[in-house]
Amino acid sequence: METRYLLLLCLFISLEYAANGKVLKGTLQTNSDWTFFTRFCFLSKTGNFSYKVSYPERYGVQSFLLYYDTANQWEAVYPATDKSCTQKKEALDKNGNQEIRLDCTRSEINGELYYVCDHFRTFISARERWWYIALSKCVTAAGETPGMYLEYEIHMTNGDIEDYLHREYSADEFYIAPIAIAFLLANCVLLVLAIICAVILRARYLFHTTYKIFMFSLATWVLYLFLWSIGYGSYGNNGLEERLRQVKTAGHVFESLYEISFLLLLVLMAKGYTITRGRLTNISTIKVAIFFTLYVFAYAILIIWEPMFFDAGKVLYIYESPPGYGLIAMRIIGWLMFLYSFIFTIKHYPNKKIFFIPFFIFYTFWFWAGPIIILLAVLVMAEWTREKTVFGVEAFVAFCGHAFFLILTRPSAANKNFPYHVRTTQIGMMVESEQNADKTDLGEFADNPYAVSSENSSNSSGGPDLSYFVVSKERSKVSETESYIPQNNER
Ligand SMILES: *[C@@H]1O[C@H](CO)[C@@H](O)[C@H](O)[C@H]1NC(C)=O
């Protein structure tokens, strides 16, 4: 019941509050004699397909053909361009009552005779399954207009008017709205905490670029969940598929911003940026820039092109299409970069292990959870549970990813893992020499010593433009003395 109120809350924001309950409305005109119309995943008992259609009688009698999602039915006829209309019709079960002839009544509209139908059909099948609806007219008799034409209003539902969580949704979409709303609320809490931490860090001059990226990532993720909550929430009310698709696409833009920025954050942190060094080497910068440019392109292609080529008749959800495979591949390449950077950093800053090892292990899960759950979904899950499972798991992983970062960077004096020791005011200062390190009071933060000599660091990476930071300590212990005196970085 509570979920229902949350959903209603979202509806206040959605523009169209009044339920009009039309899933599809429009006009279809085609020259072909068989065309894919729409699909819906019906529950085993309560599915209802209601249709109001009309078309001029001169087209001859057209039919809806209802295919279900098995190898000998839908998969046999779509896209199957080599099969004729009659062959496609033969794939239907002879006794299955799967053809709906659209010649219910005749009436005159605007001086022309029309066939008009206003009926519904309930679906009973052994399990939840997709039904694919095609429009066909295999035989054009002499004197009839070739091609097909249909004005339609179609409403497909899974449940009673009261059953808000199910009614308008295709069975594969059940519960996406409540999941989105629950995670939206949880992430809003994180966002508030992150803002509080940011204020504290800022006061201590520890509000680093990486933390800003983190906040950007979290904010875009919240926006993504917000859009999906609204999109699916109001879809549950009005069933307008087209609007849902637009809102989802807008959501994907924010989702991609989240993924790219969080991945960038992880790679930069693994490289020690703002932790062991203030800048990246030129080579690293170039590598990171190239990788992320590719990533942005991959996502742009996905978001812009994918809807154009998306074929609901073939692809059930995004991760079962080539752009989806591309995204998974990018994620794995991202992890390899993360791994490489981690090994490099840990080798040269062994004293930072206490931060980097938990960081690496945890975020390895972050990288792999998505690809693994997608693989599992394909291998073992029923088709109509895949999209929501993947969505739920991704939302959970993103939540944990942000929450863990927040915990790692919480500005608590007693936190040994705390990665930020260098103050933002020191970014831009170049290097610390051995002597300076000696001058600092290392004894006080022996728990966390990671001073690196400049000699060491330049040997280690071989990069010409290294810039490292040496130790700072927690603000509480800094006692306002400058323990690092910037030095000329010439060697
Ligand atoms: C199916 O939907 C139509 C139109 O919304 C409605 O009139 C009809 O009663 C429904 N049938 C069932 C069995 O729910």
TrEMBL record:
Top-level taxon in the UniProt lineage: Eukaryota
Secretion signal span: 1-21
Membrane topology: Multi-pass membrane protein
Boundaries of every GPR180/TMEM145 transmembrane domain copy: 183-405
Domain (GPR180-like N-terminal) ranges: 25-150
Localization per record: Membrane
Transmembrane portions of the chain: 175-201, 213-236, 256-274, 286-305, 325-343, 355-378, 390-408
Positions of region (Disordered): 446-467
Gene Ontology cellular-component terms listed: membrane
UniProt entry keywords in alphabetical sequence: Glycoprotein, Membrane, Signal, Transmembrane, Transmembrane helix
InterPro entries on file: GPR180-like_N (IPR053880), GPR180/TMEM145 (IPR047831), GPR180/TMEM145_TM (IPR019336)
PANTHER family: INTIMAL THICKNESS RECEPTOR-RELATED (PTHR23252), TRANSMEMBRANE PROTEIN 145 (PTHR23252:SF24)
Name of the protein: Intimal thickness related receptor IRP domain-containing protein
Organism, as annotated: Sinanodonta woodiana
